[in-house]
Design brief:
The chain has 279 residues and is of the alpha/beta class. The chain has two domains: 215 residues, Phosphoenolpyruvate-binding domains (TIM Barrel); 55 residues. The chain has twelve helices and nine strands. The protein has a seven-stranded parallel sheet with strand order 1-2-3-4-5-6-7. Helix 9 packs parallel to helix 10 and helix 11 packs across helix 12. It is globular and about 65 Å long. The two termini are 21 Å apart.
Amino acid sequence: MPGANARALEKARSMPADCLILDLEDAVAPDGKAVARERIASAVTEGGYGPRELIVRVNGLNTPWGADDVAAMAQLPIDAVLFPKVDAPDDVVEAVGALDAGGAPADLPVWIMAETARCILRIDAIAGAHDRLAAVVMGTADLAKETRVRDTADRIGFITALSLCVMAARANGLDVLDGVHFDLNDEGGLRAACTQGRDMGFDGKTLIHPKQIAAANDVFGPSEGEVENARQIVTAWGQARAEGLGVVVVNGRLVEQLHVDEAKRILALAKAIAGSSAD
């Protein structure tokens, strides 16, 4: 959400999104940075965003606006600060240090954009650089510009970078979000990209327009069939253990502990979605 757009900040309070990234970087022109800071600060202080996570994307610390952004956001009631153009583990450490210097809570999470070639080549070290790091967000547009990868429907040129970031996130206990889909009138392409991202292991997809929310929620949320199958797995596993059985078969498929763990994750996700919808 562009931080300088007061109407967008207001509309975001009613959107069925899990997370709102209030932007001070790419979505704000240089002469609008100060106004954007003020509007974001006012909006998040006023509240009314319900269960939605509030993340502020600041400008890079090496830009004319980064230090002021961090100072202005550090003590606000937000859930994380997203730093762009991270190239190395030291950048994460510097980001945490800047938040600390601004008086941020000691547990305020840091998110990072993975959007440069240097970042992708070092992503495992970056993902493990600090225990305050909580999430990696793919910046495929900037990555395409730097690497000259073409934005094709199958995203073949991004597959390596996307997979490396998923692996690094999982190895370090982080969330990882897929990059945006720019064609607002391409519903089929958006759904295909969401499906691809989900199948690759991403936790969700970043979006640039409210009209994209429904498709992302539909693809990344568990279906009724998946939830029911998860219930059957957990129930059958519990019954088998109670009866001292070592083998469990559900719907013709052998079930092991790893399947039970995934089933429990799906049920927890479904419960969280239901609770968010109710709120």
